[in-house]
Specification:
mainly alpha, 83% helix, elongated
Length: 121
């Protein structure tokens, strides 16, 4: 399978989310919000991986949209954890930057796929 920056970055991001989840549980004794961010943060890459096995271009685009929505939700949970003082500003900023980068890549990929689809029709 062809290398994908989007797949690689989303997998690396998921691993960061897993480490953050462990930190929140072990060091902060926080289990509810951390479980939410674990689910949404790892779902980004899972949906991207699923998109590469899509049945059609429309299905591919739909999976990327789902990934984008999950990234938006992940940003919300990270900001909430930061604002509730479970994550310090530095840790939160670093992981938020990664998530925002994924959002930009997803937006660009969706736009490119939609343009290609339009050109063929």
């Amino acid at each position: 399978m062809k290398e994908s920056i989007l797949k690689n970055k989303s997998k690396a991001f998921a691993l960061r989310i897993i480490k953050m989840y462990k930190y929140l549980c072990d060091e902060q004794n926080e289990y509810v919000l951390s479980k939410q961010v674990l689910r949404s943060g790892t779902s980004i890459g899972a949906n991207i991986a699923e998109a590469f096995y899509a049945q059609s271009e429309a299905d591919f685009i739909a999976k990327l949209y789902i990934s984008s929505k999950e990234a938006g939700e992940t940003i919300y949970w990270i900001e909430l954890l930061r604002d509730a003082s479970y994550l310090d500003i530095h840790k939160a900023s670093s992981i938020l930057e990664d998530c925002e980068e994924l959002m930009k890549l997803l937006t660009s990929s969706i736009k490119t796929m939609k343009e290609k689809k339009t050109l063929r029709n």
